[in-house]
Amino acid sequence: MTTEFILRLFAAAMFGGAIGLERGYRAKEAGFRTHFLVALGSGLFMIISQFGFEEVLKLPLNIRLDPSRIASQVVSGIGFIGAGTIIFQKHVVRGLTTAAGLWVTAAIGMTCGAGLYVLAGAATIMVLLCLEALNWLMQRFGTRNIYISFSSRSVSEVTEVLERLRNNGMRIDTYNMSETSTGDKLSYLVKMDVIVKRDKYEERVMGLMEELNGVRVESIE
Predict the structure, then answer these.
(1) Could you tell me which residues come within 8 angstroms of residue 126 by beta carbon, excluding any fewer than 6 positions away?
(2) What average pLDDT is seen over the chain?
């Protein structure tokens, strides 16, 4: 029986590691090691939940245990790890897909712990297909939120930048302009969030800023 348990743990770790490799390749917050450990731990908890108390049940004490009690705690407990991958940065929530990936990785680990290898393998394949399809769709049709900070010597130049951004299909989400002075020279510092198509990021933003005269780009994130 121990050999069977080890096989279940090995399958859980491999399926979780496969998802982790994809997340690591995309440079996400949680990679191979995190998914590997989550799946392995979930599988181990499932085995303990099912078979860890057999000796206690054999005692003549009329004890009854719920075999799903430990496994059910994994479902809620994995939320703490998933929450650590979610970041709210510059009006954009990041890490939700990785958090959901950890959640389903835990489910796959528990499925392996229950000995349902085919179901766990099918779920892993569907997760990988979903992640790759999602990445392709986001690169092709998705948008990206970009933070741009630049300085200019006149309001007319700032207006020109805004018009050029709009004409190139970019949408300004937030905008803030402040005056700064160095000696007797007055300049304007502009900070804004711009939404642009992902497949046109370098072509539209970087190229556009290089073409503008009299505008100094402070940062693009």
Answers:
(1) none
(2) 79
d(CA 210, CA 92): 26
More confident residue, 89 or 30: 30
Query: In sequence order, what DSSP letters do the residues of the chain get, joined into one string?
Result: -HHHHHHHHHHHHHHHHHHHHHHHHTT-SS-HHHHHHHHHHHHHHHHHHHHTTHHHHHSTT-----TTHHHHHHHHHHHHHHHTT-EEETTEEE-HHHHHHHHHHHHHHHHHHTT-HHHHHHHHHHHHHHHHHHHHHHHHH-EEEEEEEEEESSHHHHHHHHHHHHHTT-EEEEEEEEEEEETTEEEEEEEEEEEEEGGGIIIIIIHHHHH-SSEEEEEE-
pLDDT, tens digit, 9 for 90 and up, residues 50-72: 887 666 666 666 666 676 777 77
Is 201:144 a contact under the CB 8 Å cutoff?
A: yes
How far, in Å, CA of 137 to CA of 49, rounded?
A: 40
Q: Dihedrals φ, ψ of 151, to 5°?
A: -120, 150
Tally of CB atoms within 10 A around 9: 20
Distance CA 51, CA 65 (A): 11
